[in-house]
């Protein structure tokens, strides 16, 4: 077989193939087609010879004559469009109150991170704050049980949770101070800026973006600042300044010495080679007195009892203060126009804008006395232009520069010190307070009695207190409280029984931890990452919780539900 195949001859030749043609169904339409563009020659040069080709673009789709379009189609579309717009503009209540089937709240909640710092040692987490972007968590470490002098160093730690190199056991940055930190507050619009308060009474401003000197400014310890531990710090929007200006937000500090001071970043004296930056003076201040009316009308401010402030919350037109004795105070710092006083003065002294702004915050009975005092000092030192700094250089009495606030309202409060006051970010009249008595109370600024009182009945000890509270930044009806026992209780006012917690979160702790280490001292909801909640305890651990979808997303008409709920409670308590 092999020989036969090998001797077979292979004859190859040309052959003509048969062609097959098809009749096009659209052949009749081609007569209407025409060339859209004339043929264009495209010549490209090549080595050896020139090659040319021509391309012709031909439209093969059937041309549509717009004139033959039926008129009734455009009229129909216009009619249907008007009906659709009318239907869309009407409110739809088909899904009002609808809640889909969801798993239990606690099934989707987990402790995502446990943040620690080796340098903190035996310090406690005394304050928490998320920065402006919500990507960095800042924690203040100190001791909340100190009495007398502080001989321990405090530390600030910041964790960038969304960086690739994030390590829960290694902060992104940390700053140490000579005394313990008591509170912290990040700037609302500048992510790298934050303020902290110390046990010695200092107010410190830090800028993490400054690689040379992180400490931007620090206040002095004097009669015109704080001499006791700073218990609370809040950033307040300055309505008289532009949003992009450095004075757009003012820092408000509260101390156990009874002073509430307003600080402006515009007054900061930046650091030089000889001295460090510092806050020279507050631009405003009041002193909490037990009898503010008597303090204003007489010169008995020195002997009048001072109310030590433990917590503070700012509203649009008032300041809520929690005191050591359990009182809750509301004061209304208001401005007035006092330019007429300077216009009618016969003195040759010129008052600059900073001095006039400082006088704007003083009551009329104090303003004239302070003006006379400063004028006498200015004449003695031959000073013709007086600024706000010169007012403090003249050493006026404290009752002149930090008078008692006017229009003070006192609420029933708690039995024992109030540890935290939180204003609702969704309702201007609602605030929450917790104290060492273990009660959490919901208040309205219109009533002196609490709208609702809550206490965990499962507490083992009657002395279990609450030390932290906060409102959700995403859900108007949700708030959380925490304290002894290491349990975070999240309440939902939309539930049938809002006094009972909707969810209880127990922070992971070693079995050897005692009751004091389990105590939660700080709590903060994230205003950007709405499903993040941070807590800090007395053991120096910071826990970041990931909340469920139901606790971090608003339901329909939740603002209206909060409004109706508060109005119902107010009518019931009236």
TrEMBL record:
WD repeats lie at residues 411-453. This is Uncharacterized protein. One of its GO terms (molecular function) is dynein heavy chain binding. The keyword Cytoplasm applies. It comes from Pelagomonas calceolata. Keywords: Cytoplasm, Repeat, WD repeat. It holds the Pfam family WD40. The lineage of its organism: Eukaryota, Sar, Stramenopiles, Ochrophyta, Pelagophyceae. One of its GO terms (biological process) is intraciliary transport. InterPro entries: Dynein_IC, WD40/YVTN_repeat-like_dom_sf, WD40_repeat_dom_sf, WD40_rpt. Gene3D superfamilies: YVTN repeat-like/Quinoprotein amine dehydrogenase. One of its GO terms (cellular component) is cytoplasmic dynein complex. It is found in: Cytoplasm. SMART domains: WD40.
């Amino acid at each position: 077989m092999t020989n036969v195949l090998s001797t077979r001859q292979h004859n190859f030749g040309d052959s003509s193939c048969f062609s097959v043609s098809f009749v096009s169904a659209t052949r009749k339409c081609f007569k209407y087609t025409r060339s859209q563009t004339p043929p264009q020659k495209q010549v490209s040069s090549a080595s050896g010879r020139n090659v040319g080709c021509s391309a012709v673009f031909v439209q093969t789709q059937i041309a549509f004559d717009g004139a033959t379009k039926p008129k009734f189609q455009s009229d129909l579309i216009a009619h249907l469009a008007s009906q659709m717009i009318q239907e869309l503009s009407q409110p739809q209540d088909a899904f009002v109150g609808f809640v889909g089937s969801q798993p239990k709240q606690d099934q989707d909640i987990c402790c995502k991170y446990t943040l620690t710092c080796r340098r903190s040692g035996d310090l406690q987490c005394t304050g928490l704050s998320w920065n402006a972007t919500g990507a960095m968590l800042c924690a203040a470490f100190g001791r909340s049980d100190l009495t007398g002098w502080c001989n321990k160093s405090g530390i600030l730690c910041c964790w960038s949770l969304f960086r690739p190199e994030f390590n829960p056991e290694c902060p992104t940055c940390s700053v140490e101070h000579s005394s313990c930190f008591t509170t912290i507050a990040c700037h609302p619009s500048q992510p790298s800026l934050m303020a902290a308060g110390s046990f010695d009474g200092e107010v410190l401003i830090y800028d993490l973006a400054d690689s040379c000197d992180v400490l931007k400014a620090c206040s002095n310890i004097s009669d015109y600042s704080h001499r006791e531990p700073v218990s609370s710090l809040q950033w307040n929007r300055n309505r008289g300044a532009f949003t992009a200006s450095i004075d757009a937000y003012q820092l408000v500090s509260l101390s156990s010495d009874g002073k509430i001071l307003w600080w402006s970043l515009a007054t900061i004296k930046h650091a030089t080679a000889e001295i460090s930056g510092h806050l020279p003076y507050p631009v405003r201040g009041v002193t909490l007195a037990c009898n503010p009316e008597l303090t204003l009308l007489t010169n008995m401010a020195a002997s009048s009892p001072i109310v030590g402030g433990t917590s503070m919350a700012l509203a649009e037109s008032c300041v809520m203060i929690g005191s050591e004795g359990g009182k809750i105070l509301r004061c209304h710092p208001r401005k007035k126009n006092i330019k007429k006083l300077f216009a009618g003065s016969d003195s040759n002294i010129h008052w600059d804008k900073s001095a006039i702004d400082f006088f704007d915050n003083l009551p009329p009975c104090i303003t004239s006395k302070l003006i006379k005092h400063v004028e006498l000092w200015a004449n003695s030192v031959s000073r013709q232009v007086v600024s706000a700094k010169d007012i403090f250089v003249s050493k006026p009495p404290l009752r002149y520069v930090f008078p008692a606030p006017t229009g003070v309202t006192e609420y029933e409060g708690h039995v024992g010190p109030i540890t935290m006051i939180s204003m609702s970010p969704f309702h201007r009249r609602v605030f929450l307070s917790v104290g060492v008595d273990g009660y959490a109370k919901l208040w309205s600024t219109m009533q002196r009695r609490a709208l609702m009182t809550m206490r965990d009945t499962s507490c083992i000890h009657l002395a279990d207190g609450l030390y932290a509270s906060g409102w959700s930044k995403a859900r108007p009806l949700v708030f959380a409280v925490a304290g002894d026992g290491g349990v975070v209780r999240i309440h939902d006012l939309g539930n049938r029984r809002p006094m009972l917690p909707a969810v209880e979160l127990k922070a992971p702790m070693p079995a050897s931890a005692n009751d004091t280490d389990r105590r939660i001292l700080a709590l903060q909801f994230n205003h950007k990452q709405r499903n993040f909640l941070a807590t800090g305890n007395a053991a120096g651990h910071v826990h970041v919780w990931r909340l469920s979808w139901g606790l971090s997303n608003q339901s329909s008409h939740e603002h209206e539900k909060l409004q109706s709920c508060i109005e119902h409670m107010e009518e019931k308590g009236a």
